[in-house]
Amino acid sequence: MSKTNSKMGSIDFLLFSTIMLLVAIGVIMVYSASSYSAFFSSATNHDSMFYLKKQGLSAMLGVIAMFFTIKIDYHKMKKYTKILMIATVVLLAAVFAFPATNGARRWIRLGGPFSLQPSEIAKYIVVIYMAKSIDSKGEKIKSLTYGVIPYLMVSGFYAGMVLAEKNLSIATVIMMVTLIVLYVAGAKTSHMLGLIGLVGLCGVLGIVLEPYRMARFTSFLNPWQDPKGDGYQLIQSLLALGSGGIWGVGLGRSRQKCYYIPEPHNDFIFSIIGEELGLIGCTIIVILFIVFIWRGIITAVKAKDTYGTLLATGITSVIAVQAIINVAVVTGSMPVTGVPLPFISYGGSSLIFNLIAMGVLLNISRQKEYS
């Protein structure tokens, strides 16, 4: 492994530039979307820059961590995989020691305004585990009992812990990424079709067994049936996107962020982008994510080994799945769920761990030229 470091090439500059652009846009839009509510909130001491400061700090810490992981050979993660998996389980369990927020227990309070969301770590831990294990398993991945079910059980365990925190959206992301990695690893199509059906059934049960999720689903089909209740958020999002038109009303001039869309700097920040920057702004964001996915796939295809290919596939899939779900939710193409828009939505844990993962992805891109 020591020879690998000496043979590292340059990073994928287009991938790096895309990531940094998304982060920069995210910090600007978090400030734009949150400044009004922060100024009129006693919880933020009437500081309009409250969320900007926190997101800006998270962005700086994340970028520093990304540059750190860019320089570390990704193969070195193999020896720490078990430790990371155990630590993640401990953190996922630790959230239950803290009071619930809006009925969900997802955060570990670190004191003051700072908190840690372990589910953001779990998404990548599952990818790291699968990449290492499948790399050593080889062609046995084509076996259902030995090659597929064990990964489904491990991923299901982590997804189950996240689901227990009342976080169906991230649990769904974990299972979807698991299926993508298994498919790329060479699992049989017949097995994959069965797994997709099983995961889909679990998703349906997760919705049906929780009344509030069922209400969200039915309101998605016709949000105007309950415009002041479950359909409220989607209706306000559509109003924001519609009022933005092609060019938008201008940066910082959103009306829907003025207490119409609840917490507009979080999961529905894309609707504020649509209102302020219009169709043009939304298109630019979508193009940036398409470029990211494209370069992530190129990195996976050109990786020097199976481990790198699966790791790059998993990391790219985590971002891609979240981006697709978020845009679909905000535009009313699927039921409302709490999946943040990667790099752009407010959230320190999400941004920092996403950027750490980007460092790993860029490190894989540094080694793609060598065999």
From TrEMBL:
Briefly, what is this protein's role?
Peptidoglycan polymerase that is essential for cell division.
Which Enzyme Commission number(s) are on file for it?
2.4.99.28
Give an example GO cellular component term for this record.
cell division site
> What protein is this chain from?
Probable peptidoglycan glycosyltransferase FtsW
Gene that encodes it: spoVE
- Compartmental location: Cell membrane
Species = Clostridium thailandense
Write out the catalysed reaction.
[GlcNAc-(1->4)-Mur2Ac(oyl-L-Ala-gamma-D-Glu-L-Lys-D-Ala-D-Ala)](n)-di-trans,octa-cis-undecaprenyl diphosphate + beta-D-GlcNAc-(1->4)-Mur2Ac(oyl-L-Ala-gamma-D-Glu-L-Lys-D-Ala-D-Ala)-di-trans,octa-cis-undecaprenyl diphosphate = [GlcNAc-(1->4)-Mur2Ac(oyl-L-Ala-gamma-D-Glu-L-Lys-D-Ala-D-Ala)](n+1)-di-trans,octa-cis-undecaprenyl diphosphate + di-trans,octa-cis-undecaprenyl diphosphate + H(+)
Record-stated family: Belongs to the SEDS family. FtsW subfamily.
